[in-house]
Amino acid sequence: MSNPAPLQGPAASLREVGGSGVLHPAAHTLGGLEAASASPVHDLLPGKQVLLGSSRVTRLLPTLGRRLVGAWAFVDHFGPDDVATDPGMQVPPHPHTGLQTVSWLLEGEVHHRDSLGSDVLIRPRELGLMTAGRAIAHSEQSPVPHPAMLHGAQLWVALPDAARATAPAFEHVTGLPGFAADGLRATVFLGSMAGATSPGSTHSPLVGVDLDLVAGADVELPLEPGFEYAVLASVGSAELDSGPVPAGGMAYLGSGRRSLRLRTDAPARLLLLGGEPFEEQIVMWWNFIGRSGEEIAASRDAWQAGELFPAVPGWGDERTPAPPLPAGTLKPRGRER
User: Fold this and answer.
1) Pirin N-terminal domain spans which residues (predicted)?
2) How far apart are alpha carbons 159 and 197 in whole angstroms?
3) What is the C-alpha separation between 209 and 147, in angstroms, rounded?
4) β-strand 228-235 against 268-275: which pairing, if any?
5) How far is it, in rounded angstroms, from Cα 287 to Cα 273?
6) Using one digit for the tens of pLDDT, what is the confidence trace for 238-266?
7) DSSP letter string over 235-252?
8) What angle do CA 65, 30, 90 make, to 5 degrees?
9) What domains are there in the chain, each with its CATH number?
10) What is the DSSP letter of 124?
């Protein structure tokens, strides 16, 4: 595909950090334990509305005052968008290092291709888990034809130092495990909860669960007190035992909880993300996670030079150009701005 369609609709929800829509993306410094709450809190995170083409998406992590939840380093919530009359998601090949990407759909389909040769159609309640490790490139597109609606989340997990140079890999898991309670259907897409364990590979203690609640649900979830947690209300709103989380919002809950009570007046879908506080300090810029500015610059130079990152089949030599590095030195400093 020598001339891909321009990014439209929700495509950029995956790529304000990872695409050509930002000329000078900022570097994010994150990690360390000084800002990880050792006790329960209820902080509504100030999501950033990102205008990409004609669509708006919500960047919820990193955000002002909060850069990580466990090893979860990036949360974009996109849709629901009506893509019946446009190409939908069109994200050409781009690189990643030092992280895992999690594609989680509530509606629609995404065609994933990568430099390993993976060629997979991801649907709702299916795990698309890509481990970048030392280097990978991939593309994401709405298939032709595609469903009328597109809605989901793009999530990144920072790899710890011991795993960040691992070989790249891609996992597509259908039939994910879960559990049910009165008014709740839960799907565990990473980690473990309530006896259900996802087969998806993890490299640090963490959990990701999709919670589908009926109107009037009132349930209590078991939590790990050593994990910190956040809840994204991807559909509808909910009342947590510590306070509300509005539709489209995300609440950071800290750690020290052994359970979490959820109540809803109307049907709702929530994403529960958690993990042990990430001890390492790291640098995140564009699509790369590293440990120094020099490492990030080297990854960028390799991508620009056509080195290190193999081509994605079906795209020829086409690739998303890297934006310029920001002025100054990229340094790891901590978890808060």
Assistant:
1) 57-157
2) 20
3) 24
4) antiparallel
5) 21
6) 999 989 999 999 999 999 999 999 999 99
7) ES-EEETTEEE-TT-EEE
8) 90
9) 9-275 (2.60.120.10)
10) T
